[in-house]
Amino acid sequence: MHRVIRTQDLSDDHAQYFIYQTLRALKALHSADVIHRDLKPSNLLLNANCDLKVCDFGLARSVRTAEPSGTETGFMTEYVATRWYRAPEIMLTFKQYTKAIDVWSVGCILAEMLSGKPLFPGRDYHHQLTLILDVLGTPTLDEFYAITTRRSRDYIRALPFRKRRPFAQLFPNASALAVDFLTKTLTFDPKKRITVEDALCHPYLEAYVMIPMMSPLPLLWTPTFSSLIVAQGRH
């Protein structure tokens, strides 16, 4: 996918189909309580028929993974997801992060398909947050207090106020449905971010809504066992 985005303009039909297949793969993973944690264009494989598969599960983890003490520090690590596609809650150390981090990555990938370039190409941790806030604006009070570490809250408080930049202005050639999909996937608060299941039913993907969904995968993960899961967007 990375090479395709870099070498040609994708039609909206292509973007819809690729995002739909990515979400199908995520639905399979999330149904087994597994988070990919490293979704990006180079981890989406395409063939000449536009069939898509998700690859590279080196950072995938179960949401049930826990330390013997009962904490989840072994799972809730900051160094997940390539920086440009990394959800803000990972960097700001919310109490925990969830399947919503994969949804954020999907939004970043769609934005890149629509424009041909990464939406948040941060050079480092601080620059990444700056780019995100330049688009989403300063967090609301509810979003601010969802950040659990004082250091992160102090960092956000010290930043100048930023107004939100509408996605319709950032992507003037995108359809209204594509803009709405971006808005719902790239929501700062992970609790308010659209789920994979709801994203699959979004009007932007209406052409594919009638395709039967796969059955949920069984829960294969245990706190002491991890293995490679292969999920594909089309069965």
Give a short synopsis of this structure.
This protein is mostly helical and 235 residues long.
What does this molecule look like?
There is one protein chain. With 235 residues, this protein is mainly α. The protein has helices at residues 2-7, 12-31, 88-92, 100-115, 125-136, 141-145, 150-158, 167-170, 176-185, 196-200, and strands spanning 34-35, 44-46, 52-54, 61-62, 231-232. The protein has a single domain, classed as Orthogonal Bundle (Transferase(Phosphotransferase), domain 1), CATH 1.10.510.10. 39% of the residues lie in helices and 5% in strands.
SSE layout and pairing:
Layout: H1 2-7, H2 12-31, E1 34-35, E2 44-46, E3 52-54, E4 61-62, H3 88-92, H4 100-115, H5 125-136, H6 141-145, H7 150-158, H8 167-170, H9 176-185, H10 196-200, E5 231-232
Antiparallel strand pairs: 1-4, 2-3, 3-5
Keywords:
10 helices, two-stranded antiparallel ribbon, 235 residues, disordered C terminus, three-stranded antiparallel β-sheet, mainly alpha
